[in-house]
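User
New here, explain this?
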Amino acid sequence: MDDKNSIYFGPYPNAGDLYSVLRLIRRIFPYQSVMNHPKRICLYNHLGLCPCPPVFQSLEDERNYRKNIRHIIQFLNGETKKVLGELEKERDEASKKEDFEDAHKIQLKIDMTLRITNPLINPFNYEVNPNLAEDLYEKDLESLLNLLRENGVNVKRLERIECYDISNILGDFATGSMVVFTHGQKDSSSYRRFKIKNPPKIVPNDYEMIKEVLRRRLRNDWPLPDLIVIDGGKGQITSAKQVLDSLGFKIPLVGLAKRNETIITQDLRQIRFSRKNPAFNLIRRVRDEAHRFALNYHRKLRQKSYFLSTT
């Protein structure tokens, strides 16, 4: 008999596959798996798989749990794009509030969601083509190159891509990070961190921060990029372009709007593309790596500050 208060999914041809998916989902969005949960912390809570709703201590705990359930429903309905969009918004809000631990946890959820929803590659394909990974990177690069050229971005090649992430926080923790992708792959030896020397004292100003970081970067003799990616919208792009123009650099420049299906060109046009486009794989990797690198830097700065304040 149908329960009008329940939501049904399926039917599924293979129960084993369904349970495998649920186990994966539970690692991303923990949930209670029994009808009558004891009013105490269970073993699965220690494993990070069950929030234990009967022992919630606040409305915030309940809201977060309902959010998890909503994401699970969306996931099972095939609405992964909506799930990712909400998670990215939550991550950005946590970063603005300087809650970098929470932002890092949300980023891990995004990474895991993308990992289990991206198409899998048959391992046998690597036996047929040992260079398959490189070929896939080249495919992503070619797709992004074509996408940019078709929309008027004068890019000759994409051997070196630099992405900048500016953290909008006050005082000594105002930072900028630069990650580098060479031939479509992470080049961590070329990553750089910038501690903002003149952070705004009253109102945080992303635009001035991006100007400072780019000036300092371009005054170094590091290899010049074929493309600069700014994590931000029209304001950040305008500021970055002012720096490039003032220093006489003709480097192609784009920005990633909050919704990462939208690229902002340096003449402030918007390029929208599907997540199914191979270019998205590269854009996502670059953006996610910039966020990860920035969050790790913040964590180190805060730990250092805490250590100094207690000694």
